Amino acid sequence: MAAYISGMESSESLRYPEYKGESRGTPGADIDRRMGGTLIAVGLGVAAAGFAGRFAFQLWKPLSQVIIENAKKIPTPSLSYYYKGGFEQKMSRREASLILGISPSASKAKIRAAHRKIMILNHPDKGGSPFMAMKINEAKDLLESSTKQ
């Protein structure tokens, strides 16, 4: 093959570099070119991520204000299933029904079932408050006394 290369004209040897012997240059040059391309791609990716992060932080400030304003417009009682607030001096049917979680015109069976369910969760022997147990019992007594069968 060496005889063939020496017999080629100079234009053919320029056209077919694979037939040239070891005169291709340094063997690590292709690796260096690939490494350079990879580093450029990584650098562009980091720059793009930085610009995207900066844009997100600039966008977040007005967006967070809009979210907070809309959250304030949502009525809080609709978010909670349970009655929040203190107790009145004298318990009313409305307050008693809110404590037990039933309607004011519920039957005695529903009142007893709701009372039992809530007392199991709030009993003083199980770590509940004696005051809460007293209010739950008072609510049951008030609703049962004013309910007809």
TrEMBL record:
Keywords noted in UniProt: Membrane, Mitochondrion, Mitochondrion inner membrane, Protein transport, Translocation, Transmembrane, Transmembrane helix, Transport
A Gene Ontology cellular-component term: PAM complex, Tim23 associated import motor
PROSITE patterns: DNAJ_2
Primary subcellular site in the record, as a coarse category: mitochondrion
Protein topology in the membrane: Single-pass membrane protein
Listed GO MF terms: ATPase activator activity
TM ranges: 35-57
InterPro entries, sorted: DnaJ_domain, J_dom_sf
Compartment(s) of residence: Mitochondrion inner membrane
Pfam family, one: DnaJ
J domain boundaries: 95-149
Swiss-Prot/TrEMBL GO biological process terms: protein import into mitochondrial matrix
Entry protein name: J domain-containing protein
Source organism per UniProt: Pyxicephalus adspersus
